[in-house]
Amino acid sequence: MITANNLVKTFTRNEKKSKKSEINAVDGISLSVNAGEIVGILGPNGAGKTTLLRMMSKLMKPTSGMVSIRINDEEITDDLEVKRHIGYLSNNTRLYGRLSARELLQMLGVLYGISEEDTQKRIAKISEILSMDSFLDNRIEKLSTGQTQRASIARCLVHDPQVYIFDEPTKGVDVGAKHDIFQLITDIAKAGKCVLYATSETAEILAITERTYVMYGGRVTAELKTADATE
Question: pTM for the full model?
């Protein structure tokens, strides 16, 4: 389970004549995702979704509030250990262009302390799931937008985390790849993992999530179940 408790992120911006003001990009948000659950974050660009997800992935420190992760009923408090349990897909991930997708995943296997044999098995499985075989050994800088997005998602899977945080995971992909991604996310949840799925596309929320927090202006303006949204 991953839980956010009253998260706030305040940024300072410059106004005219050297004046400064503060703005809450995230303003007092609390939410939770249970094991086996796919929870959506729906909102337009600028709603604060990405800032919220960065705090929940421990890549950004909140101004106030806290994030907690429980694995097998035990709370993980060390930030480095927390990151080992999270697979985070940013909406603007930058990959090493001169590496192939396979080389990237092999490097991550080493960084996460996974044996070479297990890494190769995971790469083969991930490549099959995301239909990456045709470009797995191509340099990332030569890949199409959709292929790069699939490589980015693959990067989140190598260490088999318990919590997945996806920010616009279908951005730039075709219909076939979108179907593969939806199936992957469904299978992740069925395996007992937590999935937090952020998008600005209502149709995706209805297709993939069980319940959704609607964001606008840094706040949660509604919480609904998918069944409620489709009525």
Answer: 0.88
